[in-house]
Amino acid sequence: xxxxxxxxxxxxxxxxxxxxxxxxxxxxxxxxxxxxxxxxxxxxxxxxxxxxxxxxxxxxxxxxxxxxxxxxxxxxxxxxxxxxxxxxxxxxxxxxxxxxxxxxxxxxxxxxxxxxxxxxxxxxxxxxxxxxxxxxxxxxxxxxxxxxxxxxxxxxxxxx
Length: 160
Prior knowledge:
This protein is mainly β. It has a single domain (28-158), classed as Jelly Rolls. Helices cover 11% and strands 31% of the residues. It has 2 helices and 11 strands, in the order ββββββββββααβ. The chain has a 6-stranded antiparallel β-sheet with strand order 1-2-3-10-5-8, covered by helices on one side. β1 and β2 (35-40) form a beta hairpin. The protein is globular, with a radius of gyration of 17 Å. The model has no long low-confidence stretch (mean pLDDT 95).
């Protein structure tokens, strides 16, 4: 395996880092409840990856079993207990636990516990997940056809 193709061609480097303080309000939802923080958006990484901090309230639930055809998804538990489905079994993941799901891998996650939980989600390569997260709240009013198109557009394929 080799390094990827060179992206930066300068000789002196440049000042282009992005700092996001911990007290920055979430991009979706409310701090201390169900919320998503865009740590490294697809736009800011030029499509290389997307990194998000997910806060889940107690008994928040989560998405049903699904897979992605174009992106991998990784989970790193920051605190609390998040139930992760690895395609074969449910695992009670705790602080420091990590799960990587390659493209096509069945997975799901949820917070079934009586306490809040928090995790990092990493998608590679980057995809418009910000649009996905922001659109989820509008699905309650969507028709079945609109919902199916939304999930197809965002590379999310649910299984029974």
